[in-house]
């Protein structure tokens, strides 16, 4: 599975980004769209293969932030 993820990552990073970039170094609209498409694909693939890990991380983050909101900060 790591090989498939690596191939997907390499494939996404070899899209025509360099050809699209403007000479001044700015991002074109097409480049931004490619970046957003790559991010969407990465999020979908991550959700499919790593859903329990993502949910665990989000739940831990939510618990930490909610304790801060309740002023239950523990000073060590």
- Specify the number of helices: 3
The rough form would be described as elongated
Span between N and C termini? 41 Å
Tell me the structural class: mainly alpha
Q: Let me know the largest β-sheet.
A: none
Keywords: Membrane, Transmembrane, Transmembrane helix
Give a structural overview.
This protein is an all-alpha fold and 76 residues long. It has one domain. It is built from 3 helices and no strands. The longest helix has 41 residues, at 29-69. The termini are far apart. The model has no long low-confidence stretch (mean pLDDT 78).
Q: What's the quick description here?
A:
The chain crosses the membrane at residues 32-50. With 76 residues, the chain is an all-alpha fold.
Offer a few descriptive terms:
transmembrane; elongated; 76 residues; membrane; mainly alpha
Blueprint (SSEs and pairs):
Blueprint: H1 2-13, H2 17-20, H3 29-69
